[in-house]
Model the fold of this input.
Amino acid sequence: MNHLSSQSLPVSVISTFWLALFFLLIFFFLPLLVVFGVSFASRGLYGGVEWILTWDNYRRLADPLIGVIFFRSLIFAAMTTMVCAIIGFPLAYVVARVSPGWQLVWLTLVMIPFWTNFLVRTYAWILILRADGLVNGFLLTLGIQSEPLSLLFTDFAVALGLIYGYLPFMVLPLIVAIERISPRLEEAASDLYASRGAMFRYVVLPLSKPGFMAGGVLVFIPSLGAFITPYILGGGQKMMIGTLIQQEFLVSRDWPFGSALSFGLMGTALILWFLVNRTSLGKNVT
Amino acid sequence: MRSLPKPILLAGFMVLLFLYLPVIILIGFSFNASTMGVAWKGFSVQWYENLLADPSIVEATLNSLIIALISTALSLLLGLGAAIGLEKRRGLRASCMNTLILLPLVIPEILMGVALLMLFVMLQVPLGFGSIIIGHMVFNLPLTVVILRARLRKFNPAWEDAARDLGATSWNVLTSITLPMLRPAIVGAALLSFTVSLDDFVVTFFVAGPGSTTLPLKVFSMIKTGITPEVNALSAILVVVSMAFVGLSWLFQQEVPSSFLKNDSSS
Done:
């Protein structure tokens, strides 16, 4: 059927189709090629790009100082992904299994933070964590602490901000995955005397794996390249890949090295995305 | 259906609370008369009034609205053609396009920012409104296509075929069947693109030029210079507007004129 109707699309639709493709080629694909190209160029005297081809930028990635930053970012991203999976699961399970009347309400409440201003949501934590913020206010008033705790500009604050920021990215694919598990399987497990814990352990969790995979990528990739959170909640003191890239581009103005860093980041992200896309569910979620 | 186990329901609710609590606290603080600390010194809209009196905030608001409107409109225009075209095509070309459409949504934002910055500088495109609008379209266009396609896939193609059999031209089919069927998805996609554009910080941060400061850039620079009650007020406005629009967009995406749906009982 479809091949018949494809002949009869109006010219306006076909031309905007090509225009859209053209737009993405120029403003999405081409810029990535530029990053790739510049990553082999040399830095000019005044911060420009000189087209003397070199491997130096990639060699510099092996510098222990850079290695430490990459490692830090990987640890933070892995930790964020894991915590999001653990705390995201109960929420996703409730949304997937709540009665149909309530489902739209829960789903809407989960959808909203997914798209809501990331910068402002991160900023809100400053009010809670800073020296004269909410947490310290409580601790001091109740006399639990005599001195304010330093919570802001710590690794803890960055981790909390990343988990908070990217949690919805884990929950949504998990909801899709859990909804696909027939509730009858859970009933069957209970009928066969599985405890509630065993039912989750042996039925629900293994069948939710595609959701954990898709959600894992959606959380891992942006937290690996995170820039806002380490900058705002970490005070930009301890570098992560995101803050390092920003610094190379806007402060040190070493575009070739910044490009090599970006390309390393993108390579990691793309490999992950393709790996997960090969599982059937990833395709429908991302 | 069996009822949910209580501990799970409670855990789910706590996690949802975790998602909203900081935002609620932020909104609360924005009405606190106190300039320092957490102590509640009474209700005040002073900080909101200060925002209105600040010309740079008013300018940033206008910039943000203009950029969001134009990038949404253009994304919708291109996205409609891309979504309808993709839905009707098969084969290699369509699957290449599919990948090209989805990639901008999964690539780290900071990478898009620096890549576009270098492209614009090399092509000597001046940084400002134009570069920000293009930067926002790079994610708004794929977003629009994904939402429109989700709706297109649920439609019964028999309606279009019937119209064609009755002698409608392809233009007639588009304007009197396909587009009206898509209307809720179009509204939903537009609202969401508008919000995402209004909210974007990272890409904008890299491709903005002098005189094109948007609201998130303004918030960022205010946070850097020191936290004032005005930042709370501005952030509260942004977050409330953004939540309202996202919620509306989501509800529009749910609404489907039932007669247009595929009547297959299996789904």
